[in-house]
Design a protein that fits this description.
about 260 residues; mainly alpha; two-stranded antiparallel sheet; 12 helices; about 0% strand
């Protein structure tokens, strides 16, 4: 597939985006809105030992499939609303993206299994912080064993969200917006793939805050994808690497039953 030049410094996202109206007036919406919707609805998710409870409203762990499905549906609606803005980046992929994705899943699983957060930071009281970001680990095949059709349907939704939705919205938010914004407040003029020390720190530190229970894995994995971003100057390579890692992680969970990774 033919290569494409990244945005020039004098080109703004507004100029490059084919959609008019709100997307032209608010170019940040393409990068921020789907991620914000995902996080907002996701804040309602219950965990095994702690149901969601706010203002007298309680969501039990058994309702996790409903909340997660609602999160994915709401995020897809948000993606559809801003989808014309995605076309500002010509779609192309390099083999390096798939290599990074495969290496990434090995690093993620290996570092998580070392439990460095508990070993190194546990004595400092970090466990309480890590618990805030621990994954729900919902196993539909066990929790919904009496409704196998629904269990497999939700499993499909869960894998779809893990391998396709999350890579798209996270990479657009972190690398398409945040890492450019910390370089210049007039971030649409910053060509994708531009890297400064501040941007590199932001591209790793923010994901670490988003994954407190997997702090070291997040630090290594997201730094690796920042290198990929700098190397190829292509956001779709970052999305693809993320999708490969997450897809293989989902396959690993199904093969081993280690649902704490999901």
């Amino acid at each position: 597939m033919a290569d494409h030049e990244p945005l020039k410094p004098h080109e703004s996202l507004t100029q490059a985006t084919p959609a008019g109206g709100l997307l032209a007036a608010y170019p940040w919406a393409v990068f921020v809105v789907p991620f914000a919707v995902y996080m907002l609805v996701g804040s309602l998710e219950p965990s095994p030992d702690k149901p969601f409870s706010q203002l007298g409203f309680t969501i039990d762990y058994s309702a996790y499939p409903l909340v997660y499905t609602a999160k994915i549906v709401a995020t897809l609606v948000a993606i559809a609303a801003v989808f014309p803005g995605y076309r500002q980046f010509p779609f192309r992929l390099s083999p390096l993206a798939f290599i990074v994705g495969v290496v990434g899943v090995v690093l993620w699983i290996g570092l998580c299994k070392l439990e460095l957060e508990a070993r190194l930071l546990g004595p400092l009281g970090y466990d309480q912080i890590a618990d805030l970001g621990r994954r729900p680990g919902f196993n539909p095949l066990a929790e919904m064993a009496d409704r196998p059709a629904l269990a497999y349907a939700f499993l499909a939704v869960r894998l779809f969200g893990l391998a396709l939705v999350v890579p798209l919205i996270e990479e657009y938010f972190i690398r398409g917006f945040v890492m450019r914004f910390v370089i210049d407040a007039d971030w649409p003029k910053v060509p994708f793939g531009t890297l400064t020390p501040t941007a590199a720190v932001a591209g790793t530190l923010l994901p670490m805050l988003m994954h407190p229970a997997e702090l070291f894995a997040a630090a290594v994995w997201f730094t690796l994808v920042t290198w990929l971003m700098f190397k190829t100057k292509n956001i779709w390579d970052c999305v693809a690497a993320h999708a490969v890692t997450n897809g293989l992680l989902g396959a690993y969970v199904l093969a081993t039953g280690e649902w704490q990774f999901m």
